[in-house]
Specification:
- By secondary structure, the protein is mainly α.
- The protein has one domain.
- The protein is built from eight helices and two strands.
- Strands 1-2 form a two-stranded antiparallel sheet.
- Helix 2 crosses helix 3.
- It starts with a helix and ends with a helix.
């Protein structure tokens, strides 16, 4: 059993616990927050900070090597990256913002790629930790989008951007105070909060499920082989691990979907700031 404990403590795939109470149906730490605590490597620099910079470097490398020398017949890698870039440009930036979308395309592409890579760290062997499951990163990205669309709104409309929100002309006069309060809260308070929490919550849920399911499978199967638990629990461990693999595939889809949703909503918020009169 000590070998299993060492494996769980050292293998990033199994982050759920350093020890497992085999009398329980699932291996889990006393505090779920332990799943998101990464040890410091250099002083106050922990693995999450390093992974954040690694994600940024991966995005730069992907875009640089795929787009630096466009070819008439691109390689599969170049074609895939070009398709991804075209998707963000045509379907999100231009599709939502129209011709104004080209101005914001670099930002939207950067956000999409960074979140996508950061999310996929969850299912990357020997990493298995989505950096977006740390609230600071989704909160910062949401804050950048918030500052951008609010800044665009004031730059385009001046003080009318604010008055148009708190005193909407398309609403009957008697309802304007109530609707104005709701719109003000929605635009300036709820939007950045919901952007951050949506991304954070989805990746936290996925990380917790994968960690608990996979560690339970590893411990229960290993303990069954050493005779520490009944064969029935070993079979249950196989089931937990198989279910974890299903969630593993599902989380790949979730990683791409959450990157898309965050980028899409950022574009929608910018569009509403540009065309606030509508």
């Amino acid at each position: 059993m000590s070998k299993l404990i060492a494996f769980a403590a050292s293998n990033p795939t199994v982050l759920a616990a350093e020890e497992c109470d085999l009398t329980q149906p699932v291996c889990a730490p006393e505090n779920v927050a332990d799943l998101f605590v990464l040890p410091n490597i250099f002083g106050s620099i922990n693995r999450a900070i390093i992974l954040m910079f690694v994600a940024a470097l991966i995005v730069v490398a992907i875009l640089y090597f795929a787009l630096r020398n466009p070819k008439l017949l691109p390689t599969k890698f170049e074609a895939a990256v070009e398709a991804l870039v075209s998707f963000v440009r045509d379907d999100i930036a231009v599709g939502i913002l129209g011709t104004d979308g080209l101005k914001f395309f670099p930002y939207l592409l950067s956000v999409f790629m960074f979140i996508l890579v950061g999310n996929l760290f969850e299912v990357t062997p020997f990493v298995n930790f989505p950096i977006t499951s740390r609230m600071a990163i989704p909160a910062f990205l949401a804050l950048v989008s918030y500052v951008l669309f609010v800044g665009v709104g004031f730059k385009r409309h001046g003080i009318k951007y604010l008055t148009g929100v708190v005193w909407p002309q398309a609403v009957p006069v008697g309802l304007r105070p109530l609707v104005g309060v709701i719109e003000f809260a929605s635009t300036f308070l709820i939007r950045p909060f919901s952007l951050a929490v949506r991304l954070f919550a989805n990746l936290v849920a996925g990380h917790v499920m994968l960690s608990l399911l996979l560690v339970t499978g590893v411990f229960f199967v290993g303990a069954a082989f050493t005779g520490e638990v009944t064969p029935l629990k070993g079979i249950a461990g196989v089931g937990w691990f198989a279910f974890g693999l299903i969630i593993y595939i599902f989380e790949i889809v979730v990683s791409a979907l959450q990157a898309y949703i965050f980028t899409l909503l950022s574009a929608v918020y910018i569009e509403t700031a540009i065309h606030a009169e509508h």
